[in-house]
Specification:
This protein is mostly helical. It has 15 helices and no strands. The longest helix is centred in the middle third of the chain and has 32 residues. It is globular, with a radius of gyration of 21 Å. The N and C termini lie far apart (54 Å). The N terminus and C terminus are likely disordered.
Length: 416
Amino acid sequence: MTPPIADAPPKGPGFPEFVCLIACLMALNALAIDSMLPALPMIGEALGVVRENDRQWIITAYLLGFGVSQVVYGPLADRYGRKPILMIGIGLYVLFSALAAFAPTFETLILARIGAGIGAASLRVLAVSIVRDRYEGRTMARVMSLSFLVFLGVPILAPSVGAAVLTVAPWPWIFGVLALAGSAVMIWAALRLPETLHPEDRLPIQPARIADAFRQALTNRQSIGYTLAMTAITGALFGFINSSQQIFEHVFHATDVFPLVFAGIAGGIAVGTLLNATFVERLGSRLIAHSALIAFTSVAAIHAVVSALGFETIWTFALLQGLTMFCFGFIAGNLGAMAMEPMGHIAGTASSAQGFVSTTFGSLLGFAIGQQFAGSATPMATGVAICGLIAIGFSFWAEGGRLFTARHARPHAPAT
């Protein structure tokens, strides 16, 4: 008797190579955000940017492209398969990163960054889909956990990568490195990654079905409440990223240590995320996320007061911002999980809708915070604290006027 197909070993890379490939797909996005922070002054000077705060568009333009295009990749990958859509997305990332390296004007650079973000959105959507296609249960969780460990390391190292490039080459080569890294991952995936979506599982693109799924994701109280809380927290993170280089340049006059301190602060997110994974099953998402939100907001408020009173130093900044980002590590994953709790029946589309809202509007909120920079860290810290308060408010609303415990005895019950 012929053995069942399910017993056959999966095609493509083995487990270690598969984890590394997924991690690299995820890492390309983080690299495109943080690696150019040390080069922002050089880019602005070379391309004639008059207002220093306008340099922040280099980050925000990418994030906007990344946010708004997430909604299209899920339905396309469900219809045409994972691999061809992934190849198109990475191809756009490579193409527009290369165009950014040769941009003759600031406006051209911004357009190229939007294009690179549009391409990178495929990496976020399809990495999870490919893992889900190939593995399930605890094995899927293991793949995502191991991949996320690598992904967490990229924001820590990315500014140092950018600074290292600047020691041997001019700023356009930072975008060149992004294009080369994307090309390498694209070739790797093309050669080693098989199509993971079975032909019989492909879904037709039905606008009415997609629109209904979006309606459910954006009207369910728990889903939209925690999505908006995540939007506020994402805005706080992007506000810090947008402001950080200017703070080190103009407040501390210490651009040489910026990559090192940024790495320490980003490391706080990594530590918080790893500790959250250890304790979340024991304590629950709500207790951890709501407690961390309160701590996040409190530390940011203390930071704002310290800066406003003129006591800010590079050490207070590193300590207080590091503690704030440490709390962030306990928040982000839990808010996303709680937003998805009532959306199991439309998980793919709901994830796209939530990612669209949190990334798009979070990037605009972070840009608004960054635009308030005027020679001190006070606007950034104040903006982060306000975002924390907003996130607490939306969490309170999502749970029907309570924190720390679920609003419904059955979390999958529809919200009213």
